[in-house]
Design goal:
184 residues, 2 helices, nine-stranded antiparallel beta sheet
């Protein structure tokens, strides 16, 4: 388990600067004129806590100057295949967006996630950026201490600029954020 955490810490600089892949280019190529999305998003579900059978809730923030649409999220192949989350979520320039969709299993086919859940970690959210728990407001208030663990998974994001009709992809990381209280 500590090997996963040390991997996260060693990859932290990479997580802050995702690589761009354009539809016509090789991975890592940045083609002239293609927008580089500055959109961060998080995925939540009550299913993970066992408190509800709700679907997925996706919240996004666009810090860029162009309105974009996040068409879909394709997770890298793991043991069970390549889950695809179809969103068609319009994220306005300098704005927020939120969408709810039916539940799609984004957890059971990844070995790191499955191991974490077996070790009594609680999945809090999935995002394309690292989170600092002190600003999230999701920590149990009466706890004296808590622990954080993350799993990493590659993802391809499919974008659309509605104004121009341009479509492209970016390759990034998704972080699975887990929390638990330390043993007594």
């Amino acid at each position: 388990m500590t090997r996963h955490l040390s991997l996260v810490l060693s990859l932290a600089p990479l997580l802050l600067a995702p690589a761009l892949t354009c539809a016509q280019g090789a991975p890592g190529d940045v083609l002239a004129g293609e927008p580089v999305p500055d959109v961060r998003f998080a995925i939540y579900s009550g299913v993970w806590s066992g408190l509800s059978d709700a679907g997925l809730r996706i919240v996004a923030r666009n810090s860029g100057t162009r309105s974009l649409q996040l068409e879909s999220v394709t997770l890298a192949q793991a043991a069970g295949g390549q889950p695809i989350l179809n969103l068609a979520m319009a994220v306005p320039a300098q704005g927020w967006a939120e969408v709810e969709t039916t539940y799609i299993d984004l957890v059971s086919d990844d070995p790191c996630v499955a191991d974490s859940l077996r070790d009594d970690w609680k999945l809090m959210e999935i995002s394309n950026y690292p989170l600092h728990p002190s600003v999230r407001g999701l920590i149990i208030e009466d706890a004296l201490s808590f622990r954080i663990f993350q799993c990493i998974r590659g993802v391809t994001l499919h974008w659309l600029d509605a104004a121009s009709g341009d479509q492209w992809e970016t390759e990034e990381w998704l972080l699975y954020h887990f929390e638990r209280l330390p043993p007594p």
